[in-house]
Amino acid sequence: MRTIDDPFGARRRRVVAxxxxxxxxxxxxxxxxxxxxxxxxxxxxxxxRAIGLTIGDEPDSRARAVVLTIRMPRILVxxxxxxxxxxxxxxxxxLFRNPVADPHLLGIGPGASLGGALGSLTxxxxxxxxxxxxxxxxxxxxxRKLGAARAAEPSxxxxxxxxxxAAITAWVGFVVFVADRTxxxxxxxxxxxxxxxxxxxxxxxxxxxxxxxxxxxxxSARTLDLLSLGEADxxxxxxxxxxxxxxxxxxVGAVIGAAVGAVGVVVFIGLVIPHLVRRLAGAAHRGVLxxxxxxxxxxxxxxxxGARVVASPQEVPVGLLTAAVGGPFFLWLIRKxxxxxx
Amino acid sequence: MTFRLAAHGVSYRVGRTAILHPxxxxxxxxxxxxxxxxxxxxxxTLLNLLGGxxxxxxxxxxxxxxxxxxxxxxxxxxxxALLAQDGPSDIPFPVAAVVSLGRTPHRRVAGNSASRxxxxxxxxxxxxxxxxIADRLFxxxxxxxxxxxxxxxxxxxxxxxxxxxxxxxxxxxxxEERTMDRIRSRSNxxxxxxxxxxxxxxxxxxADRSIVVSRGEIVADGAPEEVLTSELLSEVYRHPMRVVxxxxxxxxxxxxG
Lengths: 342, 257
Fold this sequence. Notes:
The complex is a heterodimer of chains A (342) and B (257). Chain A has helices at residues 9-32, 40-50, 61-95, 108-119, 125-146, 154-178, 187-192, 200-218, 221-227, 231-236, 241-263, 269-281, 285-309, 318-335. Chain A is mainly alpha-helical and 342 residues long. Chain A is globular. In chain A, helix 3 (61-95) crosses helix 12 (269-281), helix 5 (125-146) runs antiparallel to helix 11 (241-263) and helix 13 (285-309) crosses helix 14. Chain B has a single domain, classed as Rossmann fold. Chain B has helices spanning 43-50, 73-79, 95-101, 114-127, 143-156, 173-188, 200-206, 224-227, 230-237, and strands at residues 5-14, 17-27, 32-36, 58-63, 66-67, 80-83, 161-165, 192-196, 209-214, 217-222, 241-245, 252-256. The longest helix of chain B has 16 residues, at 173-188. Chain B is globular, with a radius of gyration of 18 Å. Chain B starts with a strand and ends with a strand. The mean pLDDT of chain B is 94. At the A-B interface, helix 9 and helix 10 of A face helix 2, helix 3 and helix 4 of B.
């Protein structure tokens, strides 16, 4: 009985492999494309030298600086932040058995924005990321209270989160307009995101802050599968539902919070990607969580590529791209019932 | 001393409305116990209280002397399985995966293994006659098929206490008979099996003991042929009923007038 414990195993492996290849391709494209164009062969030479290998001629020093100092950290921050958006969307949809659950729709993203804006008053990216994580966690705990009646009415739950988010976002606005503009990023950063300020320091802090949460979420696949039976049957099978809910919400709050502190709110990744991954890889959460992380990273990189080229040499906020493409795509997705075949 | 599930002075009320008046009950292995009675009598509430779904308003339920509320969720899951009437119909997993979720309480338990889990799941699906739909998605099944899969999931839990709320409600007559046979075999298997049954004739045929619940009270408790009488049933259901000897086999036949 191959299918019993891992019914979607083959599909999961296929989807993860394909998404990984696409993600690598998107990363290379992001390394090459921009105001300064760098040829793929030059990128390869720069990267090879960075890890101590010598391939071909010495690369151009400007190309080296662009690739290693500017684009590489930006790409890696985009990968982590995109993965954060994808995996948290997948976890919330599973936890609340609600296909339109998403950290930003439920007010967790806005909470992280407020925390991030307050944290950036310190003038340090560490402050913004830590503040984002704290804000995300606090908002997630509020969502936990609101979610007490979640089984009853999924749409009401999301509306409650939207109202919570709108109210918190107003406070982000107050902070931004009152605070020192050299320290706190502008309001469009908090509403639509921007990867432009990413440095290696951003990457390090973001990875450290969200790491435990990502591991906790990846480890909750079986719990989320059990919750597919409904809360009551999950409890009857021995799950401590309250504890599991707390762990997952803390993980979601920390992970998306750190990402928002680093790059602002980038909408729609957490909605679109898990839907797509469930259709391709099946609904078992091992595949949904991992696939959504990789798929979220991919969507973030593609959107950032677009954000850098659509109005070149100007950059537009990355969230404009994810919303412009993700919104209609999401509408198309939810028109058809989600019935993946094993 | 045999394993037992007991209720001591257990009652349940919501606000000022008494759903179940204080009652005592003792259940032992080896019998199929049917809980019957009209709609709203408190059958499901009784079953849920026995399963530790919610704390009773008064009294306590004990498993082998241990109050059920002192058991952690996982300990309780290894002792009792409960099949409720309402569950989600849109579970996006194949049948085999749904049934294997029933093995969750046994994960990482000494003496259990993935291959044993797989064997139990396969055997249970075979027993319930659902092996041929093992790869179908639960969400695409008919309501009768879904109820067989949910029952299989609960049976795969292999708990010594089995509490079932109308397990055959959505099944056709032939499958209902076969399913009741399987459930009955579990009670012979030294388990405590309690099932709410709305069909009195099914209860009369399969149960060793019938508990009649009416308006939040146990009004009769005993062997079906003693308990299910014309007088009692007519009164409890407020509808004329007649109990006659079954023409095809020993036992009573309940006729609705």
